[in-house]
């Protein structure tokens, strides 16, 4: 089994090359042909990356926002579902309940709970990277640090606190959102490979 570093310093992180999702990104905000293509593609995958984004709250008296975006990524395509306009469509719920497709994310329980506020579903075959990395000797649990340790590159987090309910998502936002889901999938694959080496 390959051994990974336990932790990574800010200086080491700075030296790494910046990477982002290399494939095609699709933003889906209505149920139609694009939505069906998205679900069919994701259903054909064995492992998909999973993440959500919520509009940030900057003051305690602001209302808590619901999940704005659900990101699901395969190796060469990432789909960003605008849950605010779509809701949790039955086909999306079925996808997240499908026990034959592994969904990989970080701190997935919070994300799942956010999605269940729209509609109930029973999540199946989810992998939470934060729960499995200790088995590989990794102590750092942020997506940025886990990515650096497991994949050897860094990802940008500059869009994290942007408005995910904006009428139109910027290119920087879509890249960030797709990358977050995709790296979770890539980290999982790398960890599974390392067991065999």
TrEMBL record:
<dbReference type="GO" id="GO:0046872">
    <property type="term" value="F:metal ion binding"/>
</dbReference>
<protein>
    <recommendedName>
        <fullName>3'-5' exonuclease</fullName>
    </recommendedName>
</protein>
<keyword id="KW-0460">Magnesium</keyword>
<dbReference type="InterPro" id="IPR036397">
    <property type="entry name" value="RNaseH_sf"/>
</dbReference>
<dbReference type="GO" id="GO:0006139">
    <property type="term" value="P:nucleobase-containing compound metabolic process"/>
</dbReference>
<dbReference type="InterPro" id="IPR051132">
    <property type="entry name" value="3-5_Exonuclease_domain"/>
</dbReference>
<dbReference type="GO" id="GO:0008408">
    <property type="term" value="F:3'-5' exonuclease activity"/>
</dbReference>
<keyword id="KW-0540">Nuclease</keyword>
<keyword id="KW-0378">Hydrolase</keyword>
<keyword id="KW-0269">Exonuclease</keyword>
<keyword id="KW-0479">Metal-binding</keyword>
<feature type="domain" description="3'-5' exonuclease">
    <location>
        <begin position="25"/>
        <end position="196"/>
    </location>
</feature>
<dbReference type="InterPro" id="IPR002562">
    <property type="entry name" value="3'-5'_exonuclease_dom"/>
</dbReference>
<dbReference type="Pfam" id="PF01612">
    <property type="entry name" value="DNA_pol_A_exo1"/>
</dbReference>
<dbReference type="InterPro" id="IPR012337">
    <property type="entry name" value="RNaseH-like_sf"/>
</dbReference>
<dbReference type="GO" id="GO:0003676">
    <property type="term" value="F:nucleic acid binding"/>
</dbReference>
């Amino acid at each position: 089994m390959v051994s990974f570093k336990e932790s990574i310093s800010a200086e080491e992180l700075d030296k790494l090359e910046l990477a982002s999702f290399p494939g095609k990104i699709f933003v889906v905000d209505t149920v139609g042909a694009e939505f069906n293509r998205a679900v069919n593609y994701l259903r054909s995958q064995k492992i998909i990356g999973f993440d959500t984004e919520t509009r940030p709250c900057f003051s305690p008296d602001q209302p808590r926002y619901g999940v704005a975006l659900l990101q699901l990524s395969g190796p060469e395509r990432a789909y960003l579902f605008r849950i605010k306009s779509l809701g949790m469509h039955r086909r999306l719920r079925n996808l997240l309940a499908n026990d034959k497709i592994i969904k990989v994310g970080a701190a997935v329980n919070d994300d799942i709970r956010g999605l269940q506020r729209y509609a109930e579903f029973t999540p199946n075959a989810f992998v939470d990277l934060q729960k499995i990395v200790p088995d590989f000797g990794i102590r750092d649990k942020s997506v940025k640090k886990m990515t650096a340790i497991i994949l050897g590159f860094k990802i940008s987090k500059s869009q994290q606190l942007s408005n995910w309910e904006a009428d139109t998502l910027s290119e920087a936002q879509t890249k960030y959102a797709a990358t977050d889901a995709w790296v979770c999938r890539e980290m999982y694959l790398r960890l599974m490979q390392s067991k065999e080496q």
